[in-house]
Specification:
This protein is α+β, with helices and mostly antiparallel strands and 157 residues long. The chain has helices spanning 40-52, 58-61, 74-87, 110-121, 139-142, and strands at residues 2-15, 19-21, 24-26, 30-32, 91-100, 128-133, 146-156. The protein starts with a strand and ends with a strand. The structure holds magnesium ion (MG).
Length: 157
C-alpha cells in the first residue's frame, strides 16, 4: 500500500522573530510570523503527511486559536503527526520539498535541515529531500514579504 500527500504553506517575514526552517534556526535579519514558531517547511511536511492518509490539515489538529500552540515548537508537532501516521501502520517512503525564498541564501543550511527533519521522523536523511529556490524577485516571496514551502510525501505500509 502506498499513499501520497501534498503540503503547502506560507508565512510572513517580519523583524524580531527567529527564522526557523525544518527545526534549524537560520541567521537572518527577519523571521517568520505565526502563532507557533512559524516553521513553514515543517508545517508543509505535516500537512503532506496528514493529507496522505486523509486526516485533515494541521489547522484541524493544532488550531491557531488554541493558546497551547502559542510559539509551539513545530518539530514537536511533527513528532505528534508522525506518531499518528505510524499508529495507522504507515512509514515514510520519501519526502520531497521546496522552500521559496528570495533571502536569505538557504543552500548552506539544506543538509542540516534535511538531517533535522530526518531525525524527528527517525529515517535516513537520504529520503528527506529539501530544496530551495528564489522566485527571481517575482511575487510576495520574491519581494521578501514571506517564505513559501511545498512538499510531497510518499507513505508505505
Ligand atoms: Mg503554517
Amino acid at each position: 500500500m502506498i499513499r501520497i500527500g501534498l503540503g503547502y504553506d506560507a508565512h510572513r517575514l517580519v523583524e524580531n522573530r527567529p527564522l526557523i526552517l525544518g527545526g534549524v534556526t537560520i541567521p537572518h535579519t527577519k523571521g517568520l510570523l505565526g502563532h507557533s514558531d512559524a516553521d513553514v517547511l515543517t508545517h508543509t511536511i505535516m500537512d503532506a503527511l496528514l493529507g496522505a492518509l486523509n486526516l485533515g490539515s494541521i489547522g484541524d489538529h493544532f488550531p491557531d486559536t488554541d493558546p497551547a500552540y502559542k510559539n509551539a515548537d513545530s518539530m514537536l508537532l511533527l513528532k505528534e503527526v508522525y506518531a499518528l501516521i505510524t499508529t495507522k501502520g504507515y512509514k515514510v517512503g520519501n519526502i520531497d520539498s521546496v522552500i521559496m525564498a528570495q533571502q536569505p541564501k538557504l543552500k548552506p543550511h539544506i543538509a542540516a535541515i534535511s538531517k533535522s527533519l530526518a531525525s524527528v521522523l527517525n529515517v535516513d536523511p537520504d529520503i528527506v529531500s529539501v530544496k530551495a529556490t528564489t522566485t527571481e524577485k517575482m511575487g510576495p516571496e520574491g519581494r521578501g514579504e514571506g517564505i513559501y514551502a511545498q512538499a510531497v510525501v510518499l507513505l508505505t505500509k
